[in-house]
Design goal:
By secondary structure, the protein is an alpha/beta fold. Helices cover 49% and strands 15% of the residues. It has a single domain (2-189), classed as SGNH hydrolase (Rossmann fold), CATH 3.40.50. It contains 9 helices and 7 strands, in the order βααβαβββαβαβαααα. The mean pLDDT is 96.
Amino acid sequence: MRLIAFGESFVAGVGDPEHLGWVGRALRGRRAVTLYNLGVRGATTSKIAGLWRREAEARLVAEEPCRIVFSFGVNDTWHEDGVARVAPAQSLLNARAMLTEAGGLCPVLLVGPPPVPDAARQARIEALNENLKSLCVRLQVPFIDVFRPLAVDGLWAAEAAAWDGAHPGAAGYQRMAELVAAHPAWRRFTLAE
């Protein structure tokens, strides 16, 4: 199976000294899965929307099952001069377009955005997370909510605060990977069941 992962720095695993991030850890031991990790540091939904299709089509084949997983949103909530990098309504339009279009090529799944240790930004991420969850229900796309468990747990935020204020280390990514890998939607999506 081929799994193509699109998203921002959390998909890329920025801050993980082992360079696995949550995606690599969620697939650990799955030798039959070819992972194409196309996370881009600093990418917003607008940027991902402009690049994902070309990158996916270069990797999709008819000979084996293919899947596309998206995870984005944190960079959209970053405020520059008091204005969001991507307005919440535009984030949802971008997400809808990507999930709908990608779903026409192969099965898709969305992993929600993780928290950051900044109260104002965390509130914006939480609101986007809820809107993305509702969008996925309407589109009938599997959604894995990692925001609340990671926010309550505290490990993710502690590691992020100790490093760059956003990205955890190996233990934080491991915690997110465990949440994703244990989710029934992920197990079905990655043909683990």
